[in-house]
Amino acid sequence: MLDSRDNRGVLLVLGQFLCIAALALGGSWVLPWWAWALFAAGFLLVSWAAVSLGIGNLSVMPAPRGGNTLSKRGIYARVRHPMYLGVLLCGAALAAGAPTVLRWAAISVLIAVLVMKIRHEEGRLTRLHPEYPEVMKGVARLLPGVW
């Protein structure tokens, strides 16, 4: 059983949500069509990931929930962390579609926070499920063909 106190995980989630708030509140929501299309793609990806993962595995925290299972259903067959990718697509749509210094800073920090969160989460998943690295071979962490 993993330690239920995960201070680093809490800080990463706090950082993630502060960046999302800065992106959402850091400028106009008047976006060009292509930015809305990118935002919609990100939103749909997060939704697809939530359905694919299943309610028993869903958590905002990077620590796996008790009794969780490894998923390779739906989008999880191609990307290990599709919700993070969806969040980044939404953030990129706002930062590029209605740019401000705050939004560019927030998306930059968000990328760093999510990379740290991925590494933290995968470490915890590997401790809980020693087969995790083998099961996830061939599945991109965040962006197929890149990482």
Please, could you describe this protein's structure?
The structure is a single chain. With 147 residues, the chain is mainly α. It has a domain at 31-58 and 69-135. It has five helices and no strands. It has helices at residues 7-25, 33-53, 82-97, 101-128, 132-135. It starts with 6 loop residues before the first helix and ends in a 12-residue tail after the last helix. The relative contact order is 0.20.
In brief:
The chain is 60% helix and 0% strand. It is an all-alpha fold and 147 residues long.
What descriptors fit this protein?
mainly alpha, 147 residues, single chain
The tally of strands reads 0
CA(first)-CA(last) distance: 29 Å
By helix and strand content, what is the structural category?
mainly alpha
What helical percentage do the residues reach?
Answer: 55-70%
Question: Based on CA inertia axes, which overall geometry fits?
Answer: globular
As a percent range, the share of strand residues is under 5%
Mean pLDDT equals 93
Characterize the biggest β-sheet: none
Low-confidence stretches: none
Question: What is the helix tally?
Answer: 5
> What is the string of helix and strand elements?
HHHHH
Spatial extent as radius of gyration: 16 Å
